[in-house]
Amino acid sequence: MKHLVKPTLLAVLTAGVMSACSMAPRYHQPKVEMAETFPGAAANNQRAGEVAAANLGWQDYFADERLKQIISLALANNRDLRVAALNVEAVRAQYVIQRADRLPALSATGNGGRSRVAQDLSAMRDASGRQTSYIAESYNVGLGVTAFELDLFGRVKSLSDAALNQYFQQKQVRDSTQISLIASVAKAYFDERIAQAQMDLSSRVLTSREESKRLTDLQFKSGVISQVDVDVAEAQIETARADYAAAKQARDQANNALTLLVGKPLPDDLPAAAPLSQQFVNAELPVGLPSTILYQRPDVRAAEFALKSANANIGAARAAFFPRISLIGSIGSGSNDIGHLFNGPNRTWSFTPQITLPIFTWGQNKGNLDLATARKNIAVAQYEQTVQAAFRDVADALVARDSLKKQYEAKRRGEQAQTNRYKLTQLRYKHGIASSLEQLDAERDSYAAQQALLSTQQTLLENRADIYKALGGGLNQQTAEPAASTTVTTTTTTSTTTVH
């Protein structure tokens, strides 16, 4: 027994020491060529006391209580987010299975049996020397290790590292799904609100045009105006009706989109909606350097974990060229009498090491290594593409923000001017100074200016949601405490999350 324990302990200790070795290439984070600053971000760098978008809780970013409750419902019921969370659990289970191969699998066994040995087959003889039948009994119990691989070249460790990084990758995919979900809910909500505002505007214009139509009919009967003026007034009414129907369709479709995102019909007890001009708490989001923003985005981190997983698979492919040593052993006790099963002299043991040498598998192993290398190169390209796409997302959102603010202010001033013109033309028309065509033209221009202003406001609101998403905001419900140090490095560190 002592002779067995010492070699076994030595083998286990050796396996533990050697498992620290790995043939995977040393990982280096790829350097991605991109501009040092975002377009238009030089005057809007993060200042002391400001909270970065990635740390800003969505409860503290959006101001509309109705929208915030809808976002809460979506986070609790959205099917895409639920699938992403379940995928995390599935990959986590795969990692636990793979990690278990790094430790010996100890199992207990026990068996017992009774059998009758025939007289002609019996080695037992009676007093007269004749063969005699008998009942044979046997009992065995033991502990055994089955095919535990000594990870001398890091094959098992590399496979475990690959599975761990796949788990981290899936967690980042889940976080990215949440960020996208919050932005999608906000944009669908803005679409619904703008569509409702368009309906209200079309309804007011329709009422005004119907009132004007009655006055036009009276003037036509009095011979003051011609049939042309009546037809123009009728066409304007039908245009307003068509606009109202289109706005209603847009509102209903936006509501359907919200229902899909939330995962169930919206409840009736939601708070009243805030004005469209009061949808956000912060006037601007601080934007720093790309290195402080992009490497925090879940999609970028997911791409890097995929790259690390592919890098670890190369180690496993390299280790396949070398011998594999497996240990098979057991220790226990056996007896033909259950009462003597655990007596000292009845102990049993076995030790069967096994080695597998690759001889005629060079082509297969070389192909597997080439495949693993190619997949790593693909992962590098995908990582670089993800970083560049993330940079473009932020840059496009910032460029659009600056342009949309200018567009909105210009259209707001234009809408105010058209509204004033329409009011003055109405007064002139009532006093017989302006013609009906002038009045209709002024009303049409005012209506078009209000529609254009609402459309620009919708795009501006959606842009605010896009910027929050592009900067990695949406993971926190409440704003996270700012870090004590303001120094940010561009190197992404390996996660140390413990998986049980």
TrEMBL record:
Location within or outside the cell: Cell membrane
GO cellular component: plasma membrane
Signal sequence, renumbered to the chain: 1-24
Membrane topology: Lipid-anchor
InterPro entries to which the protein is assigned, alphabetical: MdtP/NodT-like, OMP_efflux
Main localization (coarse): membrane
Keywords of this entry: Coiled coil, Lipoprotein, Membrane, Palmitate, Signal, Transmembrane, Transmembrane beta strand
Keyword Transmembrane: yes
Disordered: annotated segments: 478-500
Pfam families: OEP (PF02321)
GO MF annotations, alphabetized: efflux transmembrane transporter activity
Compositional bias segments (type: Low complexity): 485-500
Annotated coiled-coil segments of the chain: 230-257
Assigned protein family: Belongs to the outer membrane factor (OMF) (TC 1.B.17) family.
NCBIfam families: outer_NodT
Protein known as: Multidrug transporter
Species, as recorded: Snodgrassella alvi
